[in-house]
Design brief:
alpha/beta; seven-stranded parallel sheet; 11 helices; 17 strands; elongated
């Protein structure tokens, strides 16, 4: 008797966590697998469209997306979800991620730095690669809010270094917060090399911390041109906090090929892309 009750209890729970599709039952776990597949294939999930396709409620899709987001597998946005950026890992972990891609991006970005110019250089592992790509003979001024970037520039004898202070955000090893934003108002530059965790044609430029996003915006306003450092794994992904819309930057520097879906979408939106020839 207890075995039968247990069976029917399990059956009831299963039914409550499944939705009917053409007479077939799709379990919640199967739906979540489908959502992840669509994120990879399409670069986005629209809850309303997928609910209509599967013949289930939007609430079911939203619930699945909440669970996937809680597991760090997607970034929820209004109406659906986008692929989450892998660049949300801690600094030491990111030092070993996409090293070759960051080296290509760094070389392209370093070519934008002109002798005698003033450059604001963001923090993060790609910006650290930019320092390595700068000629040791370069004479320029570099303004940064990253102590690790400032330390890495010491060997460049012709570069004058200005370090902006504030509360250190350990994820990217940069200063942020009110004091850092206020200090940024005193600088002016020809170029800002901006690091983000996500570059998406719809979500724009994003990062994982609100204070860091505000600091990046403040620095962008102090430069004549802003170029985004975007290795391929960041393209088509998003993080929680908006930094800038894409139309406010001079271009995106990436190692992704011209045929990459996000690169094509950026071109279609009129965003200049600097990539490998």
């Amino acid at each position: 008797m207890s075995t039968s009750i247990g069976f029917f209890t399990r059956l009831t729970i299963t039914c409550k966590n499944a939705d009917e599709q053409g007479g077939m039952w799709m379990l919640a776990a199967q739906r979540r697998d489908l959502l992840l597949e669509r994120l990879v294939a399409d670069g986005r999930v629209v809850a309303k469209d997928l609910a209509t396709e599967l013949g289930i409620s939007e609430d079911s899709i939203r619930r699945d997306l909440r669970e996937l987001a809680a597991a760090g597998l997607c970034q929820r946005v209004y109406g659906g979800a986008l692929p989450i950026s892998p660049a949300v890992a801690d600094y030491s972990t990111r030092e070993t991620v996409a090293v070759d891609s960051k080296t290509v991006v760094a070389g392209l970005a370093a070519s934008l730095v002109r002798p005698g110019s003033a450059v604001i250089l963001d923090g993060g592992t790609t910006a650290r690669a930019v320092v390595a790509a700068l000629p040791l003979t370069l004479e320029a001024t570099v303004i940064t809010h990253s102590p690790t970037i400032a330390a890495a520039l010491v060997e460049h004898r012709g570069i004058e270094i200005f370090l902006i202070g504030g509360r250190v955000f350990r994820h990217s090893m940069v200063a942020s917060g009110a004091a850092a934003v206020e200090a940024a108002q005193a600088v002016s530059a020809d170029l800002f090399l901006l690091g983000v965790t996500g570059v998406h044609p719809e979500a724009g430029l994003t990062t994982g911390d609100a204070d860091e996003a505000a600091m990046k915006r403040a620095l962008s306003r102090r430069a004549a041109e802003t170029y985004v450092l975007a290795s391929a794994e960041k393209l088509g992904t998003a993080s929680r906090f908006s930094v800038l819309p894409l139309h406010e930057v001079a271009g995106v520097v990436t190692d992704a090929p011209a045929g990459h879906r996000t690169v094509r979408e950026l071109h279609g939106a009129g965003v200049p892309v600097i990539g490998p020839s």
